[in-house]
Every structure is written in C-alpha cells, then in structure tokens.
Design a protein that fits this description.
This protein is mainly alpha-helical. The chain has eight helices and five strands, in the order E-H-E-E-H-E-H-H-H-H-H-H-E. It is globular, with a radius of gyration of 18 Å.
Length: 249
C-alpha cells in the first residue's frame, strides 16, 4: 500500500505524500539530513483565488493534519508514526483547495457569515466530535505541530465555504426535524451512545458538515479543468517511491 509520512520533528510530508498530491516532479529538493520546521508542500492556482498572479499555498503541517483527520474518519490509524495511505493526502488537498476557492468566492461577494468567530468555534467543536473528542483533536494538532490559532484560520475558510455553498449553490445548513431524526437513525455518526434529545444539536451540526463535505467535492470536481496543483518541495528520501499520478488541472 502506498503511503505518506508526517515527521514528528517539523511534521512535514515525505517524498511519497507530496508527489501523490500533485503527481509531478517537485521543483526543489532538501538534503537528506535537513531539519525543517515547516515548508510549503503544494502550490495551486485557480481563477477564484486570483489566478497565476496570486498563487495559493498549502503547508506540509496543514496537509499532515488534515490527512490525519481524513484517515481518522475512516477509522484508519497511521502505519507506525504518522504514515497514511495516499488517498488521505489527496482528500486533504482536495478539501483545502476547495475551501479556499469557495471562501474567496464569498469574500468577492462582499459578505461574511454572521458572527463568524462563534461559527468557527462551532466548527472546531464539530471537528472534535467527528474525530472522537477534544483530546483526540488536541493530540492530532500536537502530532502535526499545528497551533490552535492556525486551525481556527483554516476553519474560517471552512465556515465561509459552507456559507457560500448554502447561499449560492444549494441549501446545506438548514436541517429539518425530519432530516435530523432520519440521520440520527440511519447514518453512521459519532453519537450512537446518546439519546436523540441529548445529541440533537451535535447531530444537526454534524449533518450540516456532512452536506458541506459532499458539496465542496462536487464543486471541486466541476472546477478541475481550471485548477493547477503543483508540488513545490521534496523532503528527505524514503525507501518507498511513488508512481506518477495525473495532475488535477
């Protein structure tokens, strides 16, 4: 199984993971004994985020954290210390790219979600629920060397993206009582041990996020032809080498 590694000292993606993100030869290399706190792992360009004049960047710590989250949501732990199958790097990249694009579209409309700081804290609480609790979230942040303020900045993009999708694409945030009860009954959510009335607010928040996760990937798929994603660094070599994969453009 192909995999990627996030190193605990500096917590950056090793060669396989970065190449898997973009499927291209990175443009810079590191010496095998280099010690790096963090680096830009991916550069992407899209019309929504300003085109080639304003490229956007994803750091290795951001990708490491979100790849860890994607793996955790499927009940997958790292193979050893921070090694994950390739699909989680892909999933993390897709979500971060989509959220930046959607967030920028909302900003271009000259609007913001009401009470953005509170919504960001709700998104953080929802992520903690999704991962298995506040302690799991804190551990994941620590293992990837990501500060809480950095997470909140990423979650601001998530909230803006969800708000844009809800207002401009398809309603995803308003959850009816019937939908809520049906989701609690049939969907695989983290609140099985709770009674419906005790879990109502958390299930509502979880279901809205589920809808957002599906909608953002639909948006990204439709936008593939106008996005360019490039790996911009190679960390120290590892024994397992990646095979070339197509670039999303």
């Amino acid at each position: 199984m192909k995999a990627f590694r996030t190193c605990r000292n500096g917590s950056f993606l090793c060669a396989l993971g970065v190449c898997l993100v973009a499927g291209v030869q990175p443009s810079h290399a590191l010496a095998a004994d280099a010690v790096v706190v963090d680096r830009v792992a991916v550069r992407f360009v899209s019309p929504e985020t300003g085109g080639s004049a304003r490229p956007r960047f994803l750091t290795s710590r951001e990708l490491g954290f979100y790849a860890r989250c994607e793996a955790s949501l499927e009940g997958v732990s790292g193979e050893g210390d921070g090694i994950y199958p390739e699909r989680y790097v892909r999933a993390a990249t897709d979500r971060l790219v989509a959220r930046q694009m959607l967030a920028q579209l909302l900003i271009q409309r000259g609007s913001e979600p009401p009470d953005l700081p509170s919504l960001v804290l709700e998104a953080r609480a929802e992520l903690a629920d999704r991962l298995g609790g506040a302690s799991v979230l804190e551990e994941s942040l620590q293992r990837e060397g990501l500060e809480d303020q950095e997470l909140l900045a990423l979650l601001r993009d998530q909230v803006r993206a969800a708000w844009y999708l809800d207002k401009a694409v398809s309603p995803i945030l308003a959850v009816s009582e019937d939908s809520l009860r049906e989701a609690f009954r049939v969907m695989a959510h983290p609140f099985r041990s709770l009674k419906f009335e005790d879990a109502r607010l958390r299930v509502r928040r979880w279901l809205a996020t589920e809808r957002m996760r599906a909608a953002e990937l639909e948006f990204l798929q439709a936008a593939r032809t106008r996005i360019k994603v490039v790996a911009v660094m190679t960390p120290p070599p590892m024994s397992l080498q990646p095979s070339p994969l197509p670039v999303a453009r």
